[in-house]
Amino acid sequence: FGGSVGAEAPIVLTGAAIGSNIGQMFKLNYKTITLLLGCGAAAAIASIFKAPIAGLVFTLEVLMLDLTMGSIVPLLIAAVTATTVSYFLVGRDVTFAFEMIEPFALGKIHLFILLGIFCGLMSLYFTRTTMRVESRFSKIKNPFKKVAVGGVVLGVLIFLFPPLYGEGFNTLQALINGEAFSILDNSLLYTFRDNAWVILLSLALILLFKVYAMAATTGAGGIGGIFAPTLFMGGVAGYFMSKLLNHTVGSGLNESNFTLVGMAGMMAAWAIPISLPSAVTYELR
Asked: Which of 163, 173, 245 lies closest to 208 in space, CA to CA?
């Protein structure tokens, strides 16, 4: 219904619950049930993004399972099997289609460090704003009033900034393709879609209000995860910074590369182990 959250978290929880229920059904011990729970979570991540390594790394780092052959092999089997089934059912299309045109240049490493700092600050804003907005919603005891307030807030934000609708993966793909003007499609600023400053302003406002759209969705009772919003904000942050530097000081940055690096940087800053973002963004494309 347009909620500005992702479907990944519910799917991962469902996969983990399936694994746990299978272990309990066969009356297995606690360690084996935990491993099956991890297999379900790894399979869910792998099938969503067609990224088996990301599913494996997610489970090992986030769920902190033992790094042994007894853990890695079952997780890898579950992740690869889930990815294969996903390929059969929904095709070979990846989440983000991207081809690396410009390789990493060591002389621009300071700009990537600057992007990392920017992503760290954005993650701090993301976390604190989410907690503050959801706290406000928790004070509304009437469930109908809560849904109405959340619906109005979300509706107004999506009307003003259409990219806030849903997960936002189409917007990320447009940024990766260098089609930033498409973020103004169906918006009040459509006639200014060729103006670089209007695009930069729109990107900044989308970064600012994405958190409110996401928190309004979850605070009003919507079910969804913040994995996709984190990717979205990181990608927008990376593209915004590179386009701003290119437009003001002529840095000559590859905006598509910065979009992907921003996705990884935001995920890493958002309390996720550092190797998971690298695996996810590498396999998503």
From this structure: 163
